[in-house]
Amino acid sequence: MSARQPVQNLLDFIDASPSPWHVVKTIEALLATQTPAWQRLDETAKWTLQPGGRYYVVRDDSSIILFIVGQKPLAETGFKIIGAHTDSPGLRIKPNAASSADGLMRLGVEIYGGPILATFTDRDLSLAGRIAYKNDQDQITGMLVKFDQPLLRLPNLAIHMNRTVNEEGLKLQKQTELPLILSASAEEQLPQAYFSALLHQQTGIAATRILSWDLAVYDTQKGVFWGAESEFYANSQLDNLASCHAALQALLDNADLRPDSTRVCALFDHEEIGSQSNKGADGSFLPDVLGRIALATATDGEDYARALAKSFMISSDMAHAYQPNFPNAYDPGHKVIVNKGPVIKINANHNYSSESVSAAMFVDWCEQAGVPYQKYSHRCDMPCGSTIGPITSAKLGIRSIDVGNPMWAMHSIRESAGVLDHDYMIRVMKRFFAAP
């Protein structure tokens, strides 16, 4: 298989997953095509697990943990874990979003995480997420919703009215200048009723039954290959759906093996806002699942502690590729280059979980897989971001490393990366899962 095919699979994965809730749905649809079957576990039910069994757990529709039970006792092998996140920074629709003035209807938004707001202007935007409603049995349930057509727009202000935009950059007032244009309004239309009618039209659920929603703004433009040799690709949500896809593909590619250790793929929502939630990496989801695997495999408390001590986690999140137009944004000794391999992310203050031993282990897996690697350190005079790595490593007490593929324009609505790197990451992750 060429390096292009894994990226085409990634672009299809992203295009089908415009919100964290759709990410999990897309993964479940993929699992349904696999043989032997994957079994969905209910957190409210008692679990019965078998060696070699394939299982997954979903919490609140947008976080998912998949695992394959190893052949040997946990105390002998520990867990092999790859973690990533399903959410991306952007705009979310407010509860009472619709308003009408000056002949236009707009939707008010709230900023989720840290997007580059200017990149949302002049794009073909739409909505995706979930609604909560009462069904015919008077029970509250959820439904995914996705508007395929361009529904919204944030038109830029003409340069004639913003003469310094090219010198000072586009600055958007977050409360007053981000509402998105939805339609030309008629005076007799009540804004909220109009928006509720749109949701009814899209879902088939009566507006009176729709009680609330989680709706994200997404870019309808599909992912593409670009460059003179099509050596790059672009799409929304590369941070961090590229890592989710690589981890998932590595697990599925090795699913037919019968390894000694239990392999886990943990994909969390809410990383972009700090991970502190019931389904985030700073919540109980992963400890709960690992603990229940131990219980279901008759692993007692001391042996579970031994298993954690023998475990390892790869925290996979995207990395900042060198952009030669902006050399002063990078440490001169740590320029990571697109299509030159996965990046080991290192920070002395432990914003990343990497340390010398875990970094050496990842280097060894790269060399075994025939994959090049790079090392990244942030400029000392700029604040450094963080990941789920330090959070989960501290919570579980397991060794961890932070890695990611190099990319441009992180947190833009349209991000870019290298074709070769996605295949490289899948290969080294497969080697990690297969390693003794």
How would you sum up this structure, described in words?
The protein is of the alpha/beta class. The protein folds into 2 domains: 4-88 and 236-434, Zn peptidases (Aminopeptidase, 3-Layer(aba) Sandwich); 90-219, Aminopeptidase i, Domain 2 (Roll). The chain contains 11 helices and 20 strands. The chain has helices spanning 4-15, 20-31, 74-77, 165-168, 191-203, 238-253, 285-296, 301-309, 356-369, 388-396, 419-434; strands at residues 39-41, 54-59, 63-68, 79-85, 90-101, 104-112, 125-134, 140-146, 180-184, 210-219, 224-226, 232-235, 262-268, 312-316, 319-320, 343-345, 374-376, 399-404, 406-408, 415-418. The strands form 4 sheets. It has a 9-stranded mixed sheet, sandwiched between helices. The chain has a 5-stranded mixed sheet with strand order 11-12-20-19-15. Helix 6 packs across helix 11 (419-434) and helix 9 (356-369) packs across helix 11 (419-434). The chain is globular, with a radius of gyration of 23 Å. The chain starts with a helix and ends with a helix. 46% of the residues are buried. The mean pLDDT is 96.
